[in-house]
User: What shape does this take?
Amino acid sequence: MQVKADNCTIIIFGANSDLAARKLFPSLYELALWGNLPDDFRIIGAGRAALSHEEFRVSVRENMVKLFPETVREEAGWKTFAGRLFYVRLDLAEPDGYHTLHHEIMRGAGESGSNTNLLFYLATPPSLAPVIVRNLKEANLGEQNCSSDGWRKIIVEKPYGRDLQSARELNSVIGEAFSEKRVFRIDHYLGKETVQNIMVFRFSNGIFEPLWNRDHIANISITIAENFGIRDRGAFYEEAGLLRDIMQNHALQLLAAVAMEPPVDLSADAVRDEKAKVLRSIRHFIPENAEHSIVLGQYDGYRSEKNVADDSTVETFAAIKFFIDNWRWKDVPFFIKAGKNLAETVTEIVITFKCPPQNYFGPAESCSYTANQVILRIQPEETIAIKFGAKRPGEAVITDPVFMKFDYKTSFTEAGLTPYHRLLLDAMAGEQMNFIRQDSVEYSWAIVDAIRGAVGGQSPDLYPVHSRGPESVVRLYS
Ligand code: BG6
Assistant: This one.
């Protein structure tokens, strides 16, 4: 691993959050161990709890040992890392504490003499983002009004707002403190090896792209299924629901990657231009088309989860038929299905091609049995399969579907970086391709708002735990 970022201080708001414990500290620790972090880096955790620097280090370590016992096995490595960890107690909504934070940042910068590059990470609930950014600006910690030479960047976790209006407001607040080039809206799906490979698969091979359009493709389906429920995130889910948690970001980003035009080049903006165009071209949802294009569901037992209302109508499942109104995709249905507590955990994209004009090997309707498919399995297996028909051995001419398969595990020996490793490094290096640009965030919210508006206050359909979702999904296919 060769990438080495500029010297910098990373400031994590929400330093005692689940996200920080599960993803941020373990990733930063490993990057440090592997030598990927700059020579001079500091990490300052900011949170409400009253902790000394030392208590904070102990708590980070305890979490890591509890969650990933394998990770902290190298005592010397841990000691070096811990020496870079600091803590500032902060009521995130109160401007006063930010001066203490400023002081702590500058104290460290002064000590090391070189480190005035600042990367802020908002690992906080979305409602806190605007006030944190305002306070940063007021304390002269934003990019604007910054008197030192170092850079200032900000990473904002999803969900980015809770609808179009709040996302616009947040964009505008952030825009007053940071230029778009310094804003990294994270969707960890974009850090997955298999998601990054979608563009490589499509645009580095000559045989797929000529067929990748409405003339040859019958439909595309995207599934993000999990065989577990909301776990202990009742309060979050009651606020968000699946549309905000997964559809607005992960699912629509997969759709954009699979449907985008080839970019002018591989610069971040060229790629993000094409993704934004896809999102902008999605056909509008209106109440009149809702019945045949939207099914929302809730798993049995959701209402008994901790911090969930007895009469909650929050969705834990959504199946939606999208159309992209452009030359390449007009009238090709894109089915996206995402849900909690389904039969299995799998994320995949299935591109189903049209049948040949003449079916010699069975009745016309049997075509779907062997229809060609490209199956991009994002996780848990990391594979790409191509399905086609082959003659079953024997006298009779009977066709069966068979698969050609590529598997990351068997074709490559290198271990890939996890999404958080990769995206943290990208943000430090200023590489924005795998972060979501302001316009795409807003287009995605407009889509989700329209979906919510189209179904009105209708309650979601119940579905049994570990099933395929509500039975009403069939109406999308009629
Ligand atoms: C998160 C969602 O963004 O992504 C979770 O909040 C979801 O609800 C998770 O479970 C899925 O990510 P991954 O990478 O674990 O499949």
User: Anything to note?
Assistant: The chain has a mean pLDDT of 93.
